[in-house]
Design brief:
Layout (H helix, E strand, L loop, with lengths): L2 H4 L8 E3 L10 E4 L4 E4 L19 E6 L10 H12 L4 E3 L11 H15 L6 E2 L10 H11 L4 E5 L2 E5 L13 H12 L6 E5 L13 H8 L4 E5 L6 E5 L2 E5 L19 E8 L2 E8 L2 E3 L6 H10 L5 E2 L3 E3 L3 E12 L5 E9 L4 E2 L4 E6 L3 E15 L3 E14 L2 E18 L21 E2 L17 E9 L3 E10 L15 E7 L3 H4 L13 E6 L8 E5 L7 E6 L3 E9 H8 L5 E10 L8 E4 L15 E3 L4
InterPro entries: Calcineurin-like_PHP, Metallo-depent_PP-like, STPP_CPPED1
Protein name: Metallophosphoesterase
Keywords: Signal
Length: about 625
């Protein structure tokens, strides 16, 4: 059945407006085109014109974007309720509908059932599209086909062609299969008469260094009017390519720093009115309605070069043993070709004293770095990781005659820096005999997330330490786990494992606040998949396991122990020279047999979590 048969077209109702009990027929003004009847009031009229905006060829639909990749509960469900108030003719998705990324069919069924129950509340049709969280491995692909059939398809409504692409079916994430490209070519040839083509795909491959087959997609579209919609980045951008509009949407519940419209970080649904001249876009958000230029590609690039990836940052004051006073810095790195104005208000937290002006204003020239020193002291010496002051900042620049403004906040923090002890007579054997018992750090009390199956430290806990030999860094961990789960048929993240985050860059880089949208590339992860009866421990890494990294692990009477050796050459490559310190964090995951879901424990909150203190987890290299 075609979609035109299931969606009821609006019918034009005549409207009569009268102000008196009786009136003559010739006093009625009549508009044939609109069916409008209205009382005439002479030459002067209290209306602008009578050409009612009711083109029968136009229609409205809505688009929802990323719900997952760090789901914030309740947002998507709220969007469903609001869509029912707005009453679009149908709703289209750009993917990432479930958290996915698992081969556990029970987990996938639970997540899809939850999602399906939400969209079942819509009064209008909902069109699915696969994102990387929905369709990555073979099991997820099988589940998709069983539940929803095709992972790429098309439909036509009122001579507008909707093409739903799967940007993950090419054998790896963010890739198109040859079969899909062949299908697209055939489908476009069979629909040459469409007055407009709307392309929906999860990953905006045109924005990636590795564009896979996107050039082939554009070549097939080049002779027709089209518009492209995608998601994945969780940040809105309007761009133009080949004279056509390309939209990367923000979120409808996925992880986001939610810094607002100009950052492209907001929860929204996109309201599309399909006109004779193409789609008219409105972004419907909780805090207002913005047009399609809420964030353009030019604004995105300027934001990236002025603000993101640590360009506006506040490296923590690193201290050893005790902190009484020190100087924090606001670091402003402008990599754009235009200047901006920066102002900030600095307020004390927890009794810390700000020694200089609490309001600052500076001009930051193009392609320059400006640092603002902020001396701080505390009434009583402290030990630990603490936010001392809050910086509420504004940044403004002019673009094409318009003033573009951003607001944000940074914390000025003091973080303790620990020494890396030298290990004598070390051998890589997972015995932990070379380690002093006082050298170990315990995981934080309780579990930081997914605690449903957590029954206490005897169920799952860990302690860890770090030290150096003459040629390398050694990381040791002692895990308590009453049920070690291993399964070679499963990905390691649904087994028992732990991982180290390691950042060997200079202090100004490894000591800043890192968030989902403001992460500065440079740290690496080394994962240890737990040993178990009949299973050896495994090393995994992101990016990869560097050459020379070695592992020793063994099952113990309470769980397992491991030592990981990392040559200094790896740290020097990350640092770009001789390294002087490291930032380290440790996180572990526990998956028990017969229990759904994992328990996660951490030494510190993950570096991207709002509660983490900038610079926490730093270690210094002692003199040789």
């Amino acid at each position: 059945m075609s979609i035109g048969l299931w969606i009821i077209r609006a019918t034009l109702l005549s409207l009569a407006v009268v102000t008196g009990a009786t009136y003559a027929h010739d006093a009625i003004k009549h508009s044939e085109a609109s069916g409008l009847l209205i009382e005439s009031t002479g030459e002067a009229t209290p209306w602008t014109h009578l050409q009612i905006n009711n083109n029968p060829s136009a229609f409205q639909f809505a688009i929802v974007t990323d719900r997952t990749g760090g789901l914030r509960p309740g947002v998507f469900s709220e969007a469903v309720d609001k869509l029912n108030l707005l009453q679009p003719e149908f709703v289209v998705s750009v993917g990432d509908l479930i958290e996915g990324y698992t081969e556990d069919r029970q987990q996938l069924a639970s997540e899809w059932n939850e999602f399906d129950s939400m969209v079942a509340r819509l009064d209008m049709p909902f069109f699915y599209l696969a994102g990387n969280h929905d369709y990555t491995n073979d099991v997820m692909a099988e589940v998709w086909r069983e539940r929803y059939g095709k992972s790429y398809y098309h439909f036509t409504y009122r001579d507008v062609m909707f093409v739903m692409l799967n940007s993950n079916d090419g054998g790896s994430t963010h890739s198109f299969s040859g079969e899909q490209i062949d299908w697209l070519k055939k489908t476009l040839n069979e629909n040459k008469g469409s007055k407009w083509t709307l392309i929906f795909t999860h990953a905006p491959l045109w924005d990636r260094d590795e564009q896979d087959r996107w050039g082939e997609v554009e070549a097939l579209l080049q002779d027709r009017p089209y518009t492209v919609f995608a998601g994945h980045h969780h940040r809105y951008v309007r761009d133009k390519r080949h004279g056509r509009e390309y939209f990367t949407l923000a979120t409808t519940g996925g992880v986001s720093s939610m810094r607002g419209a100009r950052f492209g970080e907001f929860d929204h649904v996109v309201w599309v009115t399909m006109s004779e001249d193409g789609p008219i876009i409105a972004n419907l958000m909780l805090d207002g309605i913005w047009d399609k230029n809420v964030r353009t590609a030019e604004m995105r690039d300027l934001q990236n070069n002025m603000i993101d990836r640590g360009r506006v940052s506040a490296p923590a004051i690193l201290y050893r043993d005790r902190f009484s006073e020190g100087t924090a810095q606001l670091r402003l790195k402008n990599d754009a070709d235009i200047a901006y104005a920066f102002s900030a208000d600095i307020s004390s937290l927890g009794g810390a004293l700000v020694e200089r002006a609490t309001h600052v204003e500076v001009q930051v020239p193009p392609n320059e770095i400006v640092t603002i020193p902020v001396p701080l002291r505390v009434p009583k010496a402290m030990s630990g990781n603490t936010n001392l002051a809050q910086v509420d900042w504004q940044l403004r620049y002019d673009l094409n005659g318009e003033s573009i403004e951003y607001q944000g906040e940074e914390m000025l923090a003091a973080a303790r820096e620990y020494p890396l002890p030298k290990l004598k007579g070390f051998s890589l054997d997972a015995e932990l005999s070379e380690w002093s018992s006082t050298a170990f750090f315990a995981n934080a009390p309780g579990a930081f997330f997914t605690t449903e199956n957590f029954s206490g430290d005897e169920d799952f806990s860990f302690r860890w330490s770090a030290g150096v030999t003459d040629k390398g860094l050694v990381l040791a961990v002692d895990v308590v786990d009453d049920d070690i789960k291993r399964d070679e048929s499963q990905n390691y993240w649904v087994q028992d494992f732990l991982f180290f985050n390691i950042d060997a860059r200079e202090k100004s880089r490894r000591s800043i606040k890192q968030t989902y949208d403001n992460k500065v590339p440079g740290d690496r992860s080394i994962a240890v998949v737990a040993p178990a009866a009949g299973f050896e421990a495994l090393l995994r890494g992101n990016p990869g396991v560097p050459e020379g990294v070695e592992l020793s692990a063994k099952v113990t009477d309470r769980g397992y122990a491991a030592e990981v050796y990392i040559p200094f050459t790896v740290l020097e490559a990350d640092r770009g020279g001789k390294w002087d310190g490291l930032r380290i964090n440790v996180q572990a995951r526990d998956n028990d047999s017969g229990e759904y879901g994992m328990v996660g424990r951490e030494w510190l909150p993950s570096w991207g979590h709002e509660s983490v203190v900038a610079g926490s987890g730093n270690f210094y290299r002692q003199s040789d």
